[in-house]
Design goal:
Blueprint (H helix, E strand, L loop, with lengths): L7 H10 L13 H11 L4 H14 L3 H5 L3 H8 L6 H16 L8 H5 L6 H12 L8 H11 L8 H14 L5 H14 L18 H4 L16 E12 L2 E6 L10 E2 L1 E5 L5 H8 L4 E6 L3 E4 L3 E12 L9 E5 L10 H8 L8
């Protein structure tokens, strides 16, 4: 059983009469602000992203202001959002728009989608919301509505599924008013056709929804790929000397690139605080304080993060990558959120 009926009119009616979802970027026409909100919301809940969006707009009101900002300042503002490749792409794109487009965000879809960090969904959102171009958005909310309403079990993460649902989204698109339609179907997925406990009984599309009538709502949409997570053990020594601590910037192509960390020993299995200090092998280390190990879950990795605070009796010899930072300046540096929380723990640094 499949359903080919187009629910465009009913969804637009729902949007105009019942959609009470409010967001600071909703109805925005400035392509810079739309782009910024979309990048922030990639892999981020709206509730978390809202404050970051507002801080970025206040600090960098134009894309040229962002383009001229120092990398470290932007990463510090991004601190805690995670998925830091988004921040690198944000800076790269801002500088490209500033230099190649004279600070004016490009209005052609082909130019928009060529920007680093901008995929088909984000390009469609910017093109439709800012410039009224007829491009349908296809995010998780839209996939869910399309799959359930039509009863389609084509995996959304397959090549076939992406083509299938993209064509369906374009067929449903109100080409005369793409901005309202795209906002309507995304909000509908977020508020009504939710992943768990959707409001099927009061849903305006219920009459023709295949999933509702075949009791397959909980089974749709379908994903074919199983996520395999890697487990890692990150063991840190926050080595303090006088009134400061040693940190370095992560530069490898790995998680947290361009963020700062303490002295790191990564292992394949858990190790004790004593063993960690022994492996670091710094002279004159004492007064060790081991904080509880924290489990930090990322999309593709599960991290077990251990931090040991320690005092050095004499200045150590460390590689040039390490910076000695006074405690009162540590907040100027961007850290992964899990290490930032360690810093905020009461009595973390024993000798401040």
């Amino acid at each position: 059983m499949t359903n080919s009926k187009n629910p465009t009119a009913r969804l637009l009616e729902w949007n105009r009469t019942m959609n009470a979802r409010e967001m600071p970027w909703k109805g925005e026409k400035d392509p810079y602000r739309i782009w910024l909100s979309e990048i922030i919301l990639q892999q981020t809940r709206v509730e978390q992203g809202r404050a970051y969006y507002e801080r970025f707009i206040t600090t960098y009101p134009t894309i040229s202001a962002l383009a001229k900002a120092p990398d470290d300042a932007v990463f510090k503002l991004w601190e805690g959002l995670g998925y830091y490749s988004r921040c690198r792409n944000l800076l790269f794109t801002a500088r490209r728009v500033h230099s190649e487009f004279d600070g004016n965000f490009p209005s052609a879809y082909e130019d928009i989608i060529s920007l680093k960090g901008v995929g088909a969904y984000t390009a469609a959102a910017i093109a439709s919301f800012a410039f009224g171009l007829p491009h349908a958005v296809l995010d998780g909310n839209v996939f869910r509505v399309l799959s359930r309403y039509t009863g389609s079990a084509v995996p959304i993460d397959s090549t076939e599924g992406k083509k299938h649902f993209a064509a369906l989204a374009e067929a449903w698109l109100d080409k005369k008013n793409p901005a309202e339609w795209n906002q309507a179907i995304m909000d509908f997925g977020a508020l009504v056709c939710t992943p768990k406990q959707p409001s099927c009984e009061t849903c305006p599309l219920n009459k023709d929804c295949v999933a509702s009538h075949t009791n397959t709502v909980a089974k749709l949409p379908v994903k074919s790929k199983q996520l395999v997570k890697r487990t890692r053990y990150l063991n840190y020594v926050a080595a303090s000397y006088n009134n400061g601590v040693y940190i370095r910037k992560r530069t490898d192509k790995d998680i947290w690139k361009d963020l700062h960390e303490f002295i790191l020993i990564e292992t394949d299995e858990p190790i004790s605080a004593d063993e960690l200090v022994r492996r670091v092998s710094l002279p004159g280390i004492e007064a060790i304080q081991a904080l509880p190990v924290v489990k930090h879950v990322l999309t593709h990795q599960t991290l077990h993060v251990q931090v040991v605070a320690a005092r050095l009796l004499r200045k150590p010899e460390l590689e040039d990558a390490y910076l000695y930072v006074p405690f009162n300046r540590l907040t100027e540096y961007a850290f992964p959120i899990v290490l930032k929380r360690f810093q905020e723990a009461k009595h973390f640094f024993l000798f401040t």
